[in-house]
C-alpha cells in the first residue's frame, strides 16, 4: 500500500492519537491544558481537602497576610480563609461559566443550523432577532437581564448565556449556509432522507468542529463575564464565594491588604489565559486546513529541502527537463510523497501528454515546475527542474516569479476557480499583460481584446467588460487560454483543461490549443486522463502511476504497443474501446467524431 493510501485509510483511533500529539506539540496549548487539568483536579478534590469552612467568619483574625499559620493565603476582611474561599469559589465560577457556555452553544447552534438550512423567511426572522441581541452592548444587556430577573447566581448564568447566543448562531449559520447547497446534501435529499434526518446526520457532523471551536474560544470570555457580574454584586450573593465576588469584596482593601483581591484576580487570569491557549490549540487541531497548513499564508514558492539532491541536466537542449523530482506534503513530523523521482523532458515546440489515473501526481508535478505547490504543506525534497538549462529550484524568488506567466504559463481545469469572479474578464487579461509588459493602459486594453479575439471570443470588444459568470464553461476556458498566452510563453502547462467541458466544447478548445501551439511554436505539457485527446494532440506520452513515470514514448508507439502493464490497463479502460483491433485508430476515430460533433 502506498504511503498516501495508508494515510487515507488510517483508523480513527490513530487519527485521534495524531490530533492529541499535534495538540501536545503546541507548547502553549499543552501548558494551557495542564494548567486547567491541575485546577480541575484541585476543585474536584475540594470536598475531600482539610479546608476550613469558607463562610466561617473570625473578626479577630481579619486581613491576615499570606503564609500565616493555618491560612496559607491569609484571611479576608471578615477573617474567612482565602484559600478555602478561593477553591470553593473557583468551583462555582467554572461551573457557572461552562454551564452558560453550553446553554449558549446549544441554543445558538440550533438557531444557526435551522436558519442556515431553512433559509428564506425563517432565516430572516431568526437572524434579525439575533441582530437585535447583538445591537446592545452585551454587558449592559446582561445587566438589564439580571436587573429584571433579580441578582443571584442562576440569573447571572441565564444572562451570560443569552448574550452569548448570537456568537454561536452567527458562526454556525455561516457554515450551514455553505453546506445547505452542497452536493452531498442534495444527494441526501434525492435519496429520500427527511429534513430532520439530513440536519442531524449530514449537517450537524460538519458544523460540530465549528461549535467545538467556538466553545473553546468563548468559554474563557464567559467566565470573565460571570466574574464581572458577581464583581458588581449581581451574581453570587454573600456569603457564597465566587471569583468575581471575592474580587469585588477585596476591592476596598486594595491598598491595605492587596492579597485579598490579587489572589482571586490572579486565579481568573490563569484560568482565562489557559482556556484561551487551549482553545487556540484545539481550533488548530480540529480544522484540517489549519493542521495541514492550507490556511497558513503560503510562501511565494514551494519550500525546497536544504539537503536537496539536484541531478545534472542530461538534456541541455530541452525547453524543460525535470530530473528526479520528489515533491510531497508535510504534516507534523511526517512527509508523504506525492511525486517520487519523476524525470521528464519537453522539447521546444513539442506536445507531451502526461497521463495517469486520479491522484497519480500529475498536478503536483505540473505545479512543482514553477514552485506553485502551496507551502506549507508542500515540500520539494529532491530533484531539479531545468528551464532552458537553468535550474528553476536554484533561482531566487524574484527571478522565478518573473518566469511565471512570461516563460511558463498555466491553463487550469476549472476556469471558474482560477478567474476572479468580481473582475471583468478583459481586466483580468490586461492584468496578465501588465505583469510582464510595461505598456500603457490603452495599449494593454488593445492587446487584451486582440487576445480574446485570438482565442475565439465573439464580439471581444463588448465581452471584455463582462464577468466570468456571464460566460459559458468553454468561453471561460478560452479566457483562461488568453491569459496564458498574454506574454507569449515558451511553455504552456494545461492541467486537464477540458475535463469540465462537454465533448463539443472540448473539441473546440483542443483545436484552439493545437492551432496556437503550432502557430507559435510553444511547448505544451498536456495533463489528461483521456487517451482520445492524447492520440490527436500529443507527440509523446508519459504515463504516471503512484507518483512515478512508468512509461514514456512516442504517442503512436505507446498506444499501439504499450510496454507497462499499467499503461495496458489504462488503455483497456477507454470506454467502449477497450477491445478489438487497433487501439490507435479507434481513439483517433473517437476524437474525429468529437470534432465533427463540435463543428456541427
Ligand atoms: N495539499 C495537499 N496535502 C496533502 N496531499 C495532497 C495535497 N494536494 C495533493 N495531495 C496528494 O497528492 C497526490 C497527487 O495529487 P495530484 O493532484 O497531483 O493528482 P492528479 O494525478 O493530478 O489527480 P487528478 O487527475 O484527480 O487531478 C494525491 O494523492 C493527493 O491526495
Tags for this model:
single chain, 600 residues, alpha/beta, MetI-like fold, Rossmann fold, 2 domains, five-stranded mixed sheet, 24 helices, binds adenosine-5'-triphosphate, amino-acid transport, nucleotide-binding
Q: How many distinct helices?
A: 24
The H-level CATH homologous superfamily of the largest domain, spelled out, is MetI-like
CATH class of the largest domain: Mainly Alpha
Radius of gyration: 33 Å
Distinct compounds present: adenosine-5'-triphosphate
CATH topology of the largest domain: MetI-like fold
Give unreliable regions as ranges: 1-11, 577-581
Number of domains: 2
GO cellular component, one term: plasma membrane
GO molecular function: ATP binding; ATP hydrolysis activity
Protein name: ABC transporter ATP-binding protein
Organism: Sinorhizobium sojae CCBAU 05684
What would you say this structure looks like, in words?
This protein has 600 residues and is of the alpha/beta class. It has 2 domains: 278 residues, MetI-like fold (Orthogonal Bundle); 157 residues, Rossmann fold, CATH 3.40.50.300. The chain is 56% helix and 12% strand. It is built from 24 helices and 11 strands. The strands form 2 sheets. The protein has a 6-stranded mixed β-sheet with strand order 7-8-9-4-10-11, sandwiched between helices. Strands 1, 2, 3, 5 and 6 form a 5-stranded mixed β-sheet that branches. Strand 2 and strand 3 form a beta hairpin. Helix 16 packs parallel to helix 19. The longest helix has 37 residues. It is elongated. The chain starts with a helix and ends with a helix. It binds adenosine-5'-triphosphate. The site of adenosine-5'-triphosphate has 13 residues, from helix 13. Its main location: membrane. It is found in: Cell inner membrane; Cell membrane. GO terms for molecular function: ATP binding; ATP hydrolysis activity. Keywords: Amino-acid transport, ATP-binding, Cell membrane, Membrane, Nucleotide-binding, Plasmid, Transmembrane, Transmembrane helix, Transport. It comes from Sinorhizobium sojae CCBAU 05684.
